[in-house]
Specification:
alpha/beta, Rossmann fold, 4 strands, about 15% strand
Length: about 150
């Protein structure tokens, strides 16, 4: 059986302008991709990402509007600042920072979300699956991963 990386997709509610793209995300995502919709990428709590890692994802994609076209003016710039600070924690727990990818989408980017996810899946297949990472995250948070 072919290895299919597990991906957590955090999607801004406003970033997919194409009805066809949004329909694909809502109804045709591969089962290896878990969708979490948020009002803005600036509303992503770092604990959401830690929970995804602890849950065994191989990669995380964050999809938002172009910085100059954010529905909440500067929400995605806030997300980018959080992301930059969050990379240090990822390094600490041993989660390769390349496994977290930001994608800024524009109105003209029809079909881009599908291409970005497919490219990310290929990239993750080339990396070795994260082993025992959930245990490290659990130990870091003081929990148990049974």
């Amino acid at each position: 059986m072919e290895y299919k990386p597990k991906i957590a997709l955090f999607q801004c509610l406003w970033c997919l302008f194409s009805e066809a793209d949004q329909y694909w995300v809502d109804h045709n995502l591969p089962s290896s991709i878990h969708l979490a919709k948020l009002s803005c990428t600036g509303r992503i709590n770092p604990l959401y990402i830690l929970n995804a890692i602890q849950g065994g994802v191989d990669g995380i994609m964050i999809s938002g509007c172009l910085p100059e076209k954010c529905h909440f003016k500067e929400g995605n710039l806030s997300a980018l600042r959080q992301h930059d600070a969050f990379l240090n924690l990822l390094d600490y727990i041993g989660f390769d920072r390349e496994r977290v990818r930001f994608v800024w989408l524009d109105l003209q980017d029809l079909g881009r979300i599908q291409r970005e996810l497919a490219d990310f899946e290929v990239f993750l297949k080339e990396l070795q699956p994260e082993k025992q990472l959930a245990t490290r995250v659990s130990a870091l948070s003081g929990g148990s991963n049974d």
